[in-house]
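Review box. Two proteins, two foldings.
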Amino acid sequence: MAEGTTAHPPPIVLMGDASVLPLVHRILAQRAMLHGMRPVIVDCGGVFDPHAVALEARRAGHQPEAALNALLICRAFTGYQELHALRRLARFAPGRRVYLLNPLQVLLDEDLPAQDRPWLFNQLLTGLDWLSGHGHAVRVCQQSIRASPLAEAPRFEAVLAHRYPLIVAKEGRLQAMTHGQVGIPLQPRDRQRRGAVRALSPRAA
């Protein structure tokens, strides 16, 4: 590393069963209400649900409109649009928290030429590394794609899971963090407040 440069945390991957996206919407509702945060969402394939964020904000005692207005959303329905979105994020000042929702899904479009999928995946990894290296807190939120009929799916998922710190979502809970880090017992809901969003570790959320 060159003298005078500062190391930045790598992207964190939240991956797991179908509960991963509802969990991420809870996190987004929490982050949206932190002063000055304005999280950026790259919604790959149209999985972002504004109603879910509004509901979680209301449960936590916040105005849903305020939570939604604090989120910056970029939609990508193809792998090429996803890469374009990452390049656009390069213009943002460091310090943004960036959430990619299901980024692998758009790379597994059966209409994509087979030779394009590995190239797009490698470009995705390059973009994630660039963003985190320039001071953005990157969260890759991916529902498992192992059921995909495409041969690339298991490899793409495995590379993400082993390349970056991983938090596993299973049955509505964020269960573990890997890469030699101390396990974080994340509890996404506060039982005392009937489902309100509880404060999560800043490193994890």
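Next protein.
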Amino acid sequence: MKTEIPLQNDLCLSVKESVIFEKDKMVERSFSYDFRDRGTGKMIWRIDNHSRWQSVASRCHVHTNPDDEEELNEYFHNSQQTDFPYVMRCLRKHYEQEPQDWEVNPDDTTK
């Protein structure tokens, strides 16, 4: 699945998500949640595994530097919890000007 969700304040979330399930359990995925300013094209953050097929037990990361989109923070221990509901919580935090998990505990990679 690939979709772009327009949001208020001229922001948008691009979602790329493909998942393999075995017995109702997510086992592999390829994903990217890219949050940007549509007007400038600048990235705000991107949570992804570089859209590569990987086990959900594999690490994933967040990109937060709009001036160097390749820079990443290996904040997430695995990708099991970095799903669409988690990204919706991140969007809420952005709009409510609350710090993101990776900002509050930048050295905690147990998430």
